[in-house]
Structure formats: C-alpha cells, structure tokens
Amino acid sequence: MDPVQKALWFVESHSRESLALEDIARACHVSTFHLTRAFAATMDLSLMKYVRARRLSEAARQLAGGARDILGIGLDAGYNSHEAFTRAFRDQFLLTPEQVRARGGFDKTHFVEAIAMTSSPSIDLAPPRFETLEATIFAGLVERYGCQSPAGIPAQWQRFTPFLGSIPHQVAAATYGVIYNFDADGNFDYLCGVEIATVSNLPSGLTSIRVPGRKYAVFAHHGHIASIRAVCSTIWKHWFPGSGCQAVEAPTLERYGSEFNPLTGLGGFEIWIPVEG
User: Fold this and answer.
1) Does residue 212 sit in helix, strand or coil?
2) What pTM was computed for the model?
3) Antiparallel, parallel or unpaired: β 214-221 and 207-211
4) How confident is the model at residue 1 (pLDDT cuts 50, 70, 90)?
5) Residue 229: CB atoms within 10 Å
6) 3-13 and 21-28 helices cross at what angle (nearest 10)?
7) Which among 176, 262, 188, 167 has a CA at the least distance from the CA of 216?
C-alpha cells in the first residue's frame, strides 16, 4: 500500500488520539517531507490541514447532535483550550461550537468527509534516469502557493516570459520551475526561471536561488503540460515505494527544454526529484 493510503487509514483509525505529522510519517515508514509531498501531490491538499478539518468536522457532528461537553470535544479534536478550539471551529464553519449545538446543525459545505482509501489512477511513466547535478543558480520570478491553490503558476510564467533572452549570464535555453521551502501545511515557493552563471547584473524584480549539488531521479514525460500533477502523483505514490530510494528535503525541479512549446503545452518536460540511495 502506498504511503498516502496508509496515512488515510492511520488518520481515521487514530482519530481520538493526538496526531503529529511525525507520528503519521513513522506509521507510513517514510520521512515527514516525503509524506507531506506525496499527500499534497496526490490529494491537492495538505495532510495536516486534512487532519484538522476532519477532526473539526467530527466535532461539529457531535455538537449538532446535542453534545454538552464542548471543552471535552475540543480536547479530543487536539486543542488544549476552549478558546483555541472555538477559534479553529469558527474559521471552518463560520459558527461557534455553541451556535452549532443550539441550531442542531451546520452548513454541510464546510464539512470534510473522510477521503476514501482507494487507489487513484496513475499514468504510464518510464523508469527514471539518475543524474548528479552540480550546484546551480537559478534566477526568475518567485511566488508562494498552497498545494490546494497553485492555479496561478501559468500566469506567473506569462509574467516571466518578457525576461527571456535578456537575463545576463543565462546558461543554455532551458527554463525551470523550482519548488522549494515546502512546509507541513503544503505551502511552497515556486520560482519560474533559467539557470545563470552568476547573479551579477540581475534585472530588477527577479530573484535568484542557489541549489546545492546532489543526486536526482529524472522523470521524462512527453505528454501535455496539463498532466504534470498526475506525473508528480505517480512518482510519489507508485515509484518511490518500490524504488529503494529516499526523497531528500531539497528543491524539486521542472525542466522545460527547447522542444517544449509554451503556446500549445506540448513537447514534454522533466521532473527532477532529489534522492538518496
């Protein structure tokens, strides 16, 4: 069973226990970084946000049924005070626990059901090649996204396009998406840019990042760019478990060569995942 399915089972079967990301990752036999990335790539949702939303949803169900001990329900949901529980509860349901209990119900659109433990479709993906990339500097535009709302990335690329061909010290013609600073809530920084030899004379508005040298598993995909999330999901859910490799907490790269056509989305791309083993 892949780590995402294991995590779903663990969350639901330990719903009344204190759950930390480290506990879930340990039960899934992967690192916290691996589990966070795998869950986000597969579900378009942060694992720990899902845990919190599930616990608050079950609390709402109990309160709508007339449960009297609000503090006890809050403690079971993982909050150490009435105030903290009320604040989180109101953020999700736009009502206080007392209001839900008094009304005997709540807006079901804010209720988060358990995600079914079924295998999601994967795509055909050729085995990766392994590359050792030397320390590299990338320069481009940076934005921060959540795994549930990365829809702004294509527009970010459009804003970057006018810089192409005019960035000093650019190395080769390939463009890159660099994903880094990924946190436990599924938020990450995304740089769309190019490789450069030095940061001197960098145009105003662009940011640079130095990626240390390391080993990468490189997955080439020749389909449309719209399949990129399915490719990432397949890597994290289906390739890693039997690969003998471990994911390293370091930037992931998307590489778009000269054959990629940004107007049509065709031409293929590569996903570079930092690994050990």
Assistant:
1) coil
2) 0.74
3) unpaired
4) low
5) 14
6) 130
7) 176
